[in-house]
Amino acid sequence: MIGSDQFRRMKQGAIIINTARGGVIDEGALISALNTGRIAGAGLDVFAHEPVPSGHPFLAMDNVVMTPVSAWNTVDASARMINQSIDNVVHFLKGTPINVVNLNALGGEIPRVGCLGGSK
């Protein structure tokens, strides 16, 4: 999706961050754009080949920050995710959903449901 042509269209000195999928960015094109200064830097936690092979150019580049895709996986982050999931279910069952992402998909109304999934 993002290769040499897209990098040429970006503002000189842009910084690119990829947390989606490694294959979204053509790594060869990114390396070239980083080496020429077209792209100032990159933040990556996904790669075309994982783990990143030893000797990969990213490993020696000062303008690339890499983290493992599991960098979010701390004890605190896991606890927050679990607690938020519990809160979402409890509020939904009470008929007061929270964290509704796309209310329009529900016809603009939050559905009211009983504890067993039936309508109120």
Strands of the biggest beta sheet: in what spatial order?
Answer: 1-2-3
- Give the overall average pLDDT: 86
Domains (count): 2
End-to-end Cα distance, whole Å, is 46 Å
Q: Summarize the biggest pleated sheet.
A: 3 strands, parallel
Plain-language structure description:
The chain has three helices and three strands. A three-stranded parallel β-sheet has the order 1-2-3. With 120 residues, the chain is α/β, with parallel strands linked by helices. The chain folds into two domains: 4-66, no CATH class; 72-120, no CATH class. It has helices spanning 4-9, 27-36, 75-94; strands at residues 14-18, 39-44, 64-66. Helix 2 (27-36) links the parallel strand 1 and strand 2 (39-44). Residues 114-120 have low confidence and may be disordered.
